Each structure stands twice: as C-alpha cells, then as structure tokens.
Amino acid sequence: MADLHTIDDALAALLADITPTAAERVALSDAAGRVLADSVTAQLDVPPYTNSAMDGYALRAADAGQRLDISQRIAAGTPATPLAPGSCARIFTGGEIPPGADCVVMQERVEVDGNVAILPGGIPAGDNVRLQGRDVRQGDVLLNAGERLEAAALGHLAGQGITHVLVRCRPRIALLSTGDEVIDPGTPLKPGQLYNSNRPMLTRLLETFGAEVVSQVSVPDNAERTQALLAQAAEDADVVVSTGGVSVGEEDHVKTALTALGELSLWRLAIRPGKPLALGRLPRRGDGQARFIGLPGNPVSGFVGAWLFLRPLMGELLGCPELASLPCITARAGFSTSTGPRQHYMRVSLVFDAQGAEARAFDDQNSSVLSSCIQANALAVIPPHSQLASGQPVQCLWLAG
C-alpha cells in the first residue's frame, strides 16, 4: 500500500504555513472557552492583604497560652488597626490580620470569659494566616498567551478586576455534507436515504475545539454544483470541512472539484478508520486561501478524523498548545487484535483501577457503528502489522476537548 500516506504525512501537510487567527477584545463574561492572544500580567497581589484563613482570634505567637483582652473585632472587608500589646483580636475568615499579630487560633480552641480570651499554648507564627501575594504577586505573568479560558482561569482574571481580554478569533468553518442520499432529520426517509448524523456531531466537536461553524451546506451528487459550493464556502471560511465524496466512486466529486479549484495536498491514508481522507487548499477572491479537509462519509471515520486532524488544526489556528496534540496514556489492553498494513485507531473506554488504566474495546469496530463512539473516551493506537494480546501495554489517545 505504497500509495497510502501516514498520519504524520497528513499532519505535516495540514499544519504547514499556519498563521494564527486575528485577535479581538471580548468581555470576560463572554470569554469562556476562548484562547488568550496575549499574556496577562498581574496588576494586584492576591490576596491583596494578609488575612485570616478561618474564624478565630489573631494574636502574637509569643502571647499564646495566656489570657488576653479582646481589643477589636475584624470582619472581612473591615480595616484592622494595630494590635494593642497584651491583647488579641476577634477575627473572621478573610479578615485583615492586624499589624502586630502573626497567627490565628481557630475559635473552637479558645475559651471566652466576658471580653477575655483564654488561649492555648504552642501556636506557631504564621498559623492560619494567608500572606499578601501568596497566590499571585503584582507583575507576575497571570496567564500565558495560548491558554484556554476555562473556569479557574476566568476566576483568576476576575480576581484582578479584569473585565475584558484579548483572545484569538474563532476559526470560521464551512461544513459541507455531500450525497443525495443524506437528508436532514425531520424529513421522511425514502428508500436508500439516511439521516445526516455527521453534521450535528462535527458541529459540536468543532465548537468544543474552539471553532465557529458559519455555514452548513448540503451538496448534491453533481460535479458542477459541488465545485460551485466548494468555491462559495471558501469565501466565507478559514477552513472548509466536507463529509463524503472523497472516495473513488463515480458520484464522489469532491476531490475532483478541489483539484480543479485549488490544490489537493494529500489523499488516502494508511489508517483505519478514515482511509479516504483528502487535504488541500481552496483559493479566495483577492488574497488568502481556505484550508480544506475532506472527511470520509462514514460517521465513525468522521468522528476519529475530527480528533486526529480538526482538533490539532484548530489548536494551530488559535495558537493553543493544549489543542495541538491529544494526551497519550499507556494502558493495558483489555482485548486482543491484529492489524494489516494500516494503523488502527480503536474506540476504547479507559477504566482506572489500582493497577492503572485498562482499555476496553467495543466489540464492533466497523466505521459505520457510531454507537461505539458514545462511551469511548480514548482511541487505542495499534501500529500496522501488529499483534496485540490482552494484558499487553497499548498507547491510547485521551479524547479531551
């Protein structure tokens, strides 16, 4: 099978000469899942002042084990005054440590007699105290360019009082579904027809990978219409993704249309599922090109191809290393298999136990069995011309969005 390309060949062709998308400033409230275009520097210490980690009494560690007057009450948000000698302060979680105090005793360990606290001994300096700048110091890099803004990162930014951030524009995707037999849900099926499962599946995956699907087009089995719709899609998108139409059948017009309009960079891979994959470029009016990925029509091939190719492409376009490659986990195989000349990506479920991770494969690995992808959380990578026995180590790509 010398005419088939490796996955490394495909990724090299797909990711060559990538320029990240432009940047835009968005409100922090709209930035969930977006990718930072520039690093963010801390403008404030976090916490901004030394404060108590719990409800209790603030004192000098040297005064532990004594009876001390309670000289002030400090709630969170209330300014503290210097601690009077021979006294302690009633303090609540988040309250500012008064100057002169260096520890906090939790209230459960303190007896109170009127306005006097009877304190235990042996309290070390720094106990239950959160120092100013413990988390972040002013001038530190808060978040690096290329980081995705998920829950903790959004909280980190909000803790600096930040309201807007500079993020990469979402790559614009035109999603084309080919074939007269593929129809939208809601339309009665006629003999020989099937519902379009690829469109909602790929739309959701692309959105998870940080892209925006700007158009969804059905392409008939007609050479002229295929070419016209491909050209139109390239005008509005950074990436054109098609499903079906890239094999060798008489009604597979996508590869021919791509060659006529632009450039076919690579076709047919030595992988299973997903052999009839096509990569290329489509010209736009004026300057620039749209990248093209032609996925097979079988839904499992589209699912696997999205993780192997669309995700790293979105990672490069967004300048996001987290998306550029899937995390790899070594598991023990809970199945046995053998491969021919193509590298196999098997849908598996990773189950973790005291011995590590076990990869449990779905019985039916046919490329039309989409149900095998519902519970799959990894792809077990089986090299060409291999035999894998149950219990042997196997490399698995973790399907992390």
TrEMBL record:
Under what name is this protein listed? Answer: Molybdopterin molybdenumtransferase
Q: Which reaction is catalysed here?
A: adenylyl-molybdopterin + molybdate = Mo-molybdopterin + AMP + H(+)
Cellular-component GO terms for this entry: cytosol
InterPro entries the UniProt entry points to:
MoaB/Mog-like_dom_sf, MoaB/Mog_dom, MoCF_biosynth_CS, MoeA-like, MoeA_C_domain_IV, MoeA_C_domain_IV_sf, MoeA_linker/N, MoeA_linker/N_sf
Organism of origin is Vreelandella arcis
Report the EC code(s) recorded for this entry: 2.10.1.1
Q: Which PANTHER family match?
A: GEPHYRIN, MOLYBDOPTERIN BIOSYNTHESIS PROTEIN
**Gene3D superfamilies reported in the protein's UniProt record:** MoaB/Mog-like domain, MoeA, C-terminal, domain IV, Molybdopterin biosynthesis moea protein, domain 2, Molybdopterin biosynthesis moea protein, domain 3
